[in-house]
Design a protein that fits this description.
six-stranded antiparallel sheet; 2 domains; alpha+beta; 7 helices; single chain; 224 residues
């Protein structure tokens, strides 16, 4: 039964990651465009906001107040999107939508930037994060999974590792942290594995993580 459980979790994790790579750029584009629309609309015509609030359906839905329903719904939608991509019809539909989004003025560049950010979690050599690390964040004693993005040299300081710490379950938002090199631990996790760990809120977690203090020379060579 253990092998069946691992197989199911692996399938769920891979499908969730695929769905996230496809769905999150659309969601992020919508959030940004909606923010810009609300900002401009609030300046030109505040009355429109009152009209939107009057017909807001969120408070009228009986399940909207159910604790955790938002996260569960988001994961379910992402899984369905990812699963549909494994079918020929689903792939064709996604590519058509992506092409349409890219050709829309204003929305196209936002969507492209969002997609490139999310694709970083795929582990692509061209655009993805290269290393998965562990750092103590947000304070000592609390360990967070992060992605090493580079090394920097602030004036009057020792060299620092630039680490992106994503938030769960949507990793498109997070924190950029400058950490002392001797406080960063390299891991044997693949970027895709770490992405599944974050997207699932820790439900899909590795059985074991091998760690070692970051090698500054090795990092310098990778970033060159």
């Amino acid at each position: 039964m253990q092998w069946l459980k691992r197989k199911i979790l692996k399938h769920f994790g891979n499908t969730l990651l695929t769905g996230s790579l496809l769905a999150i750029p659309f969601a992020l584009t919508y959030v940004i465009v909606d923010f810009l629309f609300q900002f401009v609309d609030g300046i030109l015509n505040p009355a429109i906001n009152l009209l939107y609030e009057r017909y807001d359906l969120v408070d009228k839905l009986p399940f909207a107040i159910f604790p955790g329903i938002g996260v569960i719904s988001a994961l379910l939608i992402i899984y369905i999107v990812g699963f549909s991509f494994y079918t020929a019809a689903g792939r064709s539909a996604v590519r058509l939508i992506q092409k349409t989004m890219l050709n829309i003025p204003v929305i196209g560049p936002i969507y492209l930037a969002s997609r490139k950010l999310v694709e970083s979690f795929s582990g692509s050599k061209e655009t993805g994060f290269k290393r998965v690390v562990l750092i103590q964040f947000p304070r000592e004693g609390f360990w967070s999974v992060g992605f090493l993005t580079g090394i920097t040299q602030p004036s009057d300081f020792e060299r620092k590792a630039v680490v992106y710490v994503p938030t769960a379950p949507l990793p498109n938002s997070g924190f950029v942290v400058l950490v002392n090199l001797d406080e960063v631990y390299d891991t044997d996790l693949k970027v895709a594995e770490a992405g599944q760990f974050v997207l699932s809120g820790g439900i899909i977690s590795p059985d074991h993580i091998t760690t070692a203090r970051l090698d500054p020379n090795k990092v310098y060579e990778d970033q060159a």
